[in-house]
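fyi for ur records
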Amino acid sequence: MVKGGKVSLLTRAELCVKLCVMKVSTVREVQHNFSSLLRLVSRGEEIEVYSRKKLVARIVPPQVGQSPFQPVDWSDLPSLLHSLWKGKMVHGSSTGKVLDDLRGER
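which gave:
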């Protein structure tokens, strides 16, 4: 900390209070101090982000052993598409035909 132009070290109590208080942040603070907040999160802290006194996000460290990428199960895709389109067939041109039409004669 800077006090009266002199740099002083934080005591353990001050550091604990500062870290405990920093668990809540505003969107603006997150935008301006994102790398600092990520350092806290990487140490296990959770940060709640508020916008106009409303909780809009929570930044939490990943669970141990959790992969950021989950495999996608495409086996149910035909039934999902059928439910979205309600059995209606979608007719259109092939991608190659559309591109040829857009390009015109060269």
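Residues 96 and 102 are 10 Å apart (CA to CA). thats all i got for now
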